[in-house]
Each structure stands twice: as structure tokens, then as C-alpha cells.
């Protein structure tokens, strides 16, 4: 697999570094960026190639990976787009649809649209992705290898990317907000705020790991920590009484609506 990165910032660095660490020779990677030296730095750090221009970059490999800001897609010229003839274009650009990408790269053999998330920076990301056309087994394996550099990845169909975006793309901000709010609440109750946030985040990590490793359902795990009329029971009853499930449903719908709106330009 040879892969060329357009954009060499945080996400490209995480993917390229993960690929090299998993055995891809750095000579099989090329990159280019904007006016700042992110691509030069990435190429130097990994021993990868630095492309002189986008035509050279797009011609370099079998896969062209787009890792610049979403609004820069329109800077791809028709001539540059044509250089991707027969290649696979993989995009991590938030909100840019397969149709947008196909407009920029009309001759690509296949296009992969990915929604990664920020824990990718520490290899703990979870990505969702979809293909323009049914992929070959080899392409699927290569995409899984590339996204494996960021954590885990799951295939969906494009329409599902709106709700997937809310869950895995916006998810980190949701969990950071929970940790922040619990810290503020604990402070009001006289507990050190930083300690409370650490307790909240470590409890979230432990609970989710338990959920992932257990064969029990979420409800069974809830039941296992809830005694009748106990403290957890009081917390859960209050959350339901005060509309927590409804708040989540309405907020998720608002975010899905915004995702649809953005994808329609
Ligand atoms: N960070 C996340 O967790 C996350 C989550 C979901 C989606 N994404 C998507 O991932 C993409 C990259 O995010 P990031 O956090 O890695 O961004 P970033 O660190 O800001 O990197 C952006 C890169 O794009 C380059 N660039 C700027 N103008 C360019 C141009 N005209 N042509 C080509 N390259 C250009 C920059 O180069 P110079 O600075 O060297 O000029 C830099 O290498 C975004 O589209 C974002 O929507 C990121």
C-alpha cells in the first residue's frame, strides 16, 4: 500500500505514525500541506516523502488521504482531481459528503468517507466510515489498517453517518461536558474539583471497559449496581423524573439536524 496525505496536521500525523509503527515502510508515504511546514516536519520525522506539488502527491500512491480542513476541498482543481483517476480517495473531512468528494475527484475508483474522533490522537479513537462503491476485500483490509492506526473503526451506510457523527464524532465533547459538570457540582458540595473530574473520568473509562468486556446488557449492569431505595436508585430515578432521556433525545435530534443542514451546504 502506498498512501499520499494532502494535509499533514494532527490527524494525518496520527494516522501516518500509526501506519509506520504497524510496519508500513515510510517510503510508502508521501505528504503535502499548505503554507506552514507541517508536511515537511511530518516527512522528516517519519522518513517519508515530501511531495513538491499536489499532482505529484496524488500520483504517488494507490490511496489519496484528505486530511486538510473541510472548506479546503474546493481548492482541489479539476486538473488535480483528474490525477486521482483509478485511485481510492479516503477523506476524514468533517461534513463533506461522498457527493462533494466525487465532484472533486470524479475519476476516482472508489471514495471512502470517514468520521474519526479526537481520542485518535492517543490511538483510542473510534471511527465510522462508508464507501462510495462496494469495496474489494483488499481495499476493505487497507481501510481497516489505516483506520486501525487511530483506534477502532466500524462501517456504516452514508445516511447513518449523521447519527454516528453525533455519537462518535461529537461524543468526546459530550463526555468532556459531563466530566466538567460533575466537577462543578462536586465543588459546590465541598469536594476538590480536579479530584471530582478525575473520579468522573476514571469511572467512565472503567465502566465502559466493563461494559465492553462483559456479556451483560447495559440494563443488567445497571441492575447490578442498584439496590432498591439505595443511592444509585435515587440518582437514576431523579435523572428520569427530571427528563434526562428526553434531553438526550432532543439534543441528539438537534445535532443530527445540524449535520444534515451542513451536508446540504
Ligand atoms: N481532529 C479530529 O479529531 C477530527 C475529528 C473529525 C474530523 N476531523 C477532520 O480532520 C481534518 C484534519 O483535522 P486536523 O485536526 O488534523 O487539522 P490540522 O491539524 O489543522 O491540519 C490541517 C492540515 O491541512 C493543511 N492545509 C492547510 N491548507 C491547505 C491547503 N490549501 N491544501 C492542503 N493542505 C492544507 C495544513 O498545512 P499547514 O498548516 O502546513 O499549512 C495542515 O497540515 C479536518 O478536515 C477535520 O474536519 C478531525
From TrEMBL:
GO terms for cellular component: cytoplasm. One of its GO terms (molecular function) is pyrroline-5-carboxylate reductase activity. It catalyses: L-proline + NADP(+) = (S)-1-pyrroline-5-carboxylate + NADPH + 2 H(+); L-proline + NAD(+) = (S)-1-pyrroline-5-carboxylate + NADH + 2 H(+). Residues 2-95 form the Pyrroline-5-carboxylate reductase catalytic N-terminal domain. Its EC number is 1.5.1.2. Pathway: Amino-acid biosynthesis; L-proline biosynthesis; L-proline from L-glutamate 5-semialdehyde: step 1/1. Pfam families: F420_oxidored, P5CR_dimer. Its main location: cytoplasm. InterPro entries: 6-PGluconate_DH-like_C_sf, NAD(P)-bd_dom_sf, P5C_Rdtase_cat_N, P5CR_dimer, Pyrroline-COOH_reductase. The keyword NADP applies. Residues 158-262 form the Pyrroline-5-carboxylate reductase dimerisation domain. GO terms for biological process: L-proline biosynthetic process. SUPFAM superfamilies: 6-phosphogluconate dehydrogenase C-terminal domain-like (SSF48179), NAD(P)-binding Rossmann-fold domains (SSF51735). NADP(+) binds at residues 6-11, 67-70. It is found in: Cytoplasm. Keywords: Amino-acid biosynthesis, Cytoplasm, NADP, Oxidoreductase, Proline biosynthesis. It comes from the Bacteria. Belongs to the pyrroline-5-carboxylate reductase family. Catalyzes the reduction of 1-pyrroline-5-carboxylate (PCA) to L-proline. This is Pyrroline-5-carboxylate reductase. It comes from Pelagicoccus mobilis.
Amino acid at each position: 500500500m502506498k498512501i499520499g496525505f494532502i494535509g499533514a496536521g494532527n490527524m494525518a500525523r496520527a494516522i501516518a505514525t500509526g501506519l509506520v509503527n504497524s510496519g508500513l515502510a515510510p517510503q510508502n508515504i508521501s505528504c503535502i500541506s499548505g503554507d506552514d511546514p507541517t508536511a515537511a516536519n511530518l516527512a522528516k520525522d517519519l522518513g517519508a516523502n515530501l511531495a513538491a506539488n499536489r499532482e505529484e502527491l496524488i500520483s504517488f500512491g494507490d490511496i489519496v488521504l484528505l486530511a486538510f480542513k473541510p472548506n479546503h476541498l474546493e481548492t482541489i482543481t479539476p486538473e488535480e482531481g483528474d490525477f486521482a483517476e483509478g485511485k481510492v480517495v479516503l477523506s476524514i473531512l468533517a461534513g463533506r459528503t461522498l457527493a462533494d468528494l466525487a465532484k472533486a475527484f470524479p475519476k476516482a475508483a472508489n471514495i471512502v468517507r470517514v468520521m474519526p474522533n479526537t481520542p485518535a490522537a492517543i490511538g483510542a479513537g473510534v471511527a465510522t466510515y462508508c464507501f462510495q462503491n462496494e469495496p474489494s476485500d483488499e481495499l476493505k483490509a487497507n481501510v481497516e489498517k489505516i483506520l486501525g492506526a487511530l483506534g477502532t473503526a466500524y462501517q456504516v451506510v452514508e445516511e447513518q453517518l449523521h447519527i454516528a457523527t453525533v455519537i462518535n464524532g461529537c461524543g468526546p465533547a459530550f463526555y468532556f461536558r459531563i466530566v466538567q459538570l460533575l466537577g462543578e457540582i462536586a465543588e459546590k458540595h465541598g469536594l476538590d474539583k480536579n479530584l471530582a473530574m478525575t473520579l468522573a473520568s476514571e469511572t467512565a473509562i472503567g465502566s465502559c471497559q466493563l461494559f465492553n468486556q462483559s456479556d451483560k446488557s447495559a440494563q443488567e449492569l445497571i441492575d447490578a449496581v442498584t439496590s432498591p431505595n439505595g443511592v444509585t436508585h435515587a440518582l437514576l430515578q431523579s435523572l428520569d423524573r427530571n427528563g434526562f432521556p428526553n434531553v438526550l433525545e432532543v439534543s441528539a435530534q438537534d445535532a443530527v439536524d445540524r449535520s444534515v443542514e451542513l451536508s446540504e451546504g
